[in-house]
Automatic annotation (TrEMBL):
<feature type="binding site">
    <location>
        <position position="124"/>
    </location>
    <ligand>
        <name>NAD(+)</name>
    </ligand>
</feature>
<feature type="binding site">
    <location>
        <position position="258"/>
    </location>
    <ligand>
        <name>substrate</name>
    </ligand>
</feature>
<feature type="binding site">
    <location>
        <position position="412"/>
    </location>
    <ligand>
        <name>substrate</name>
    </ligand>
</feature>
<keyword id="KW-0028">Amino-acid biosynthesis</keyword>
<dbReference type="InterPro" id="IPR012131">
    <property type="entry name" value="Hstdl_DH"/>
</dbReference>
<dbReference type="GO" id="GO:0051287">
    <property type="term" value="F:NAD binding"/>
</dbReference>
<feature type="binding site">
    <location>
        <position position="325"/>
    </location>
    <ligand>
        <name>substrate</name>
    </ligand>
</feature>
<keyword id="KW-0479">Metal-binding</keyword>
<feature type="active site" description="Proton acceptor">
    <location>
        <position position="324"/>
    </location>
</feature>
<feature type="binding site">
    <location>
        <position position="185"/>
    </location>
    <ligand>
        <name>NAD(+)</name>
    </ligand>
</feature>
<dbReference type="GO" id="GO:0008270">
    <property type="term" value="F:zinc ion binding"/>
</dbReference>
<dbReference type="InterPro" id="IPR001692">
    <property type="entry name" value="Histidinol_DH_CS"/>
</dbReference>
<dbReference type="GO" id="GO:0004399">
    <property type="term" value="F:histidinol dehydrogenase activity"/>
</dbReference>
<feature type="binding site">
    <location>
        <position position="233"/>
    </location>
    <ligand>
        <name>substrate</name>
    </ligand>
</feature>
<keyword id="KW-0862">Zinc</keyword>
<feature type="binding site">
    <location>
        <position position="255"/>
    </location>
    <ligand>
        <name>substrate</name>
    </ligand>
</feature>
<comment type="similarity">
    <text>Belongs to the histidinol dehydrogenase family.</text>
</comment>
Amino acid sequence: MPIPILSCDRNSKEVYSRFLSGAREDLSSATSRILPILEDVRTKGDSALFCYTEKFDGIKLSKLTLNPKEIQTNVDSKTKEAFLRAKSNIEAFHMAQKREAWSKVIDGNRLGVKYTPIPSLAVYAPGGKALYPSSVLMGIIPAKIAGVQSIQLITPPQKEGIPEILVWLTQILEIDRIVTVGGAQGIAAAAYGTESVPKSEFIVGPGNSYVAAAKSYLSGQGLIGIDSPAGPSEVCIIADATSNPKWIACDMLSQAEHGEDSSAILLTTEVSFAEKVRDELEIAFRERPKRLEMKQKAIYENSSILVFPTMEDCIWFSNELAPEHLEIQTRDNDSVFAKIEHAGSVFLGPYSPVAMGDYISGTNHILPTARGSRIYSSLGVDTFLKRVTFQEVTKESLETLYPYVKLMSELEGLDEEHGTSVKVRTKGQT
């Protein structure tokens, strides 16, 4: 059953509407299961963390936190070189996002903005098969550049010990501690704080449905800030016949490799090109069978090739879709990109597969999904900064503007105190 090739236009809602549903992971079942865990951590602190770690991970801990400086690691030199190169690129990109305080005189008064970092951050790192050390770089580096002072890594314990690559990264990034607690209980520890685990004001990082449910619930309670709500990973590719069909197929499959609920959507104007990409997908399934069932489910059930009448239609649909990742491989990439309004991160040209941004180029791979890029941005330095406005009003300006304050406060029924607080400062008042 090959991937469907669907011809449509802007009015073909019955064809493309399912891709615009903004599918998010259904966390209702997970939420009902994690609520008792969150309450136990809130009320019982460390004892709940010890209990749930033994129950879910089969490990009886003697302590909940580790000091990275006290752990010996033996990461091979080639792995170090790769991650150091990624670290350098990510730092360079995010350094350009730094904010400086500013002020200007408006109507005689000095108004301005200064930026202050959030005080503390927890970064969640899954364990076992779902090991994403690159996400540790992506979460921590912009926070460090923003000036976050207290950062801890939350990760489930492993019978063989915490993976050396994670420990080494916490060392080179100078993280305060490693909290060896996973799942919803690890998120709760960061949100509430316990005897051993300091409370964090913000948490980022991927995790399973229980982690996602805990982050979403605790954020909704105002207990911790989170990155944008997460859904299945996705890529949209705008391409024409100048593109390499095999490369396009590879890019679609690299997204399918994330999980069976991932989606990859190709937008093009040429049926013959669409057929070539479809054929390359089938060839790839035969030649690269690793995780075959998962990739096929993602491609056959959640993905599609949509053929629109014009490139303008492709751009329109991409903006409606607001994808997490957007690749543009066309005759004129820049002109297409100029018309893009909503996307988590954009990859221009044939040599910019999403995997480059996932690991090494320097942009952040923690991105909004499920059409979230219509209102959210990629994780960056701004994520960890608070904008504090200030003003210094002059005596002359206060007297000049008081009549307007008087009128407006009377209109809102707040003249007795709001209006008076300005009036008493005007000439002739005591």
